[in-house]
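User: I'm curious what two different proteins look like when written out as structure tokens. Can you demonstrate?

Assistant: Sure. I'll show them one after the other, since each token string lines up with its own sequence. Here's the first protein:
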Amino acid sequence: MNEPVCVVVGVGPGNGAAIARRFSAAGYRLALLARSLELTTRLAEQLGNARAIACDVTDAAQVAAAFAELRQYLGEPRVLVYNAGAGAWGTVEEIGPRDFEAHWRVNALGTLLAAQQVIPAMKAAGSGSIVCIGATASRRGSARAAAFAPAKAAQRLLAESMARHLWPAGIHVALVIIDGIVDLPAARARLPDKGDAFFVQPAAVAETVYQLTTQDRSAWSFEVEVRPFGETW
């Protein structure tokens, strides 16, 4: 098994599945991590070079067990894409402490736990990529993002800290800021008046993620924004 390994953490029907398909097409073997195996098992069967693993990213023991399993069956990862995220909305008066903590655990703590699993082998190899999927909320606290924005901001700053620490070791840490609404059936149903150009396409996000992992070390990017042309910014 000489093919490189990519771990996608947080595989849903949108960006996560698209990222998995893009890396599979590039010749990677895939580890697909999600809380439920329903979607990832079907996707793994479709790809043919992937393994679906159940994992709650907020539980350190589950993360350790999931990475131990993928190392056993696939080998050490060359690429980690952290796509897990929680995005319930509410103002500071509407959210509760559990909401606030839950968002932080998925977006920030999960990023830390997953990254710590791949860093030792990447450092030993002198190469590797860690790409986090972020959001514009990490830069501005809108009224109804009282739980989501602080969590994504914590993730963004953690990624920046990791980049400053790990780039000299040959590990490319990068952050993709998504500014827009991802094209999913639920989003289409909620916004029936919007055309194709309004939505962020998962396959396009996946291409950006993949290209980040192919950049020459002399010109690495840390933070990349993706948005449709109609998005206000």
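Here's a second, unrelated protein for contrast:
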Amino acid sequence: MDNKLMLMIPGPTPVPESVLLALAKHPIGHRSGEFGTIMAEVTAGLKWLHQTENDVLILTASGTGAMEAGIINFLSPGDRVLVGTNGKFGDRWAQLAEGFGLNVERVTAEWGKALDPEDFRTRLEADTAKDIKAVIVTHSETSTGVLNDLETINRHVKAHGALIIVDAVTSLGATNVPIDEWGLDVVASGSQKGFMLPPGLGFVAVGPKAWEAYATAKIPRFYLDLGKYRKDAAKNTTPFTPPVNMFFALQVALKMMQAEGLENIFARHHRQMNATRAAMKALGLPLFAADGTSSPAITAVAPVGVESEKIRSVMKKKFDIALAGGQDDLKGKIFRVGHLGFVCDRDILTAVGALEATLIELGYDGVTPGAGVAAAAKILNETA
């Protein structure tokens, strides 16, 4: 019998049945009044989710496309920018910025460690000429399972006066990102993460200070020109043909999220993160990110005495549970357990139980049968 595929990766994430059914509806014209009504509703829902009264623009793109738009619309070739790099995606934004002719300075930390806000403060305070135009930060570094201290870094950026451009691809909808309260200028995310949708939509929240920079930014842009999206969003339409059925799905997903409530969404993700981490410790599996810096979207594990790729292979072949592997230099060294989006407590217990069985099959000496499930269940029962 074919088993039900269980996605325990940081994206794409599981999609609720009601959202999938919305995708199956017959398309409507994207210049119709019906679409305009949906556009107005989802825009209001996105502002709620982003905790902002300012623009949240919808692109037909992945999270990388949203980040590219978030960089090229507000900067000019030669601008000096700081980019936090402590994983694959921080590195990607540095490479992207360099590709558009920006003067990039990396603020680095070892993969698996959080960025040090003091490194940003030191560089920003030394810039008395105010040459630094923007700071680009990955909030949840998916490749390592680390959550960077965005709030503190942002305070230093605000004291300097530069723009802050945030990759919130796996943090938005999983942990608190109060855009207006913190005064974040540009925040990018993607549909296949905490939004509980398939891949296909990118989102960019833009504040007033960023729009001021837009007026003088000189990097060429056309399809990703956010000014066009802003102008058309004010009329509940889009500048180019959107994936109409994804808007149907977004409408349903946002209603689900609003019914659960922001605080409950954040609490669920943190509860499942803590349960997963407790299970890994109980099974004798070393965690890659330290307590206090771990992402509520994904847990990275660096096993010793058993190969991570063998764990992933058995989990997939025997239980049809997909875990993520390591990327770049971490390939073959870690595996990653996603708990992002449409994931329930039962999914955590199922994945941990299957992992226990996998470790036993692979002859891992550190496993005590039932220890992982018991540790996860204790956390889930205490905080549910």
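A detail about the second structure: The domain at 17-259 is CATH 3.40.640.10 (Aspartate Aminotransferase; domain 2).
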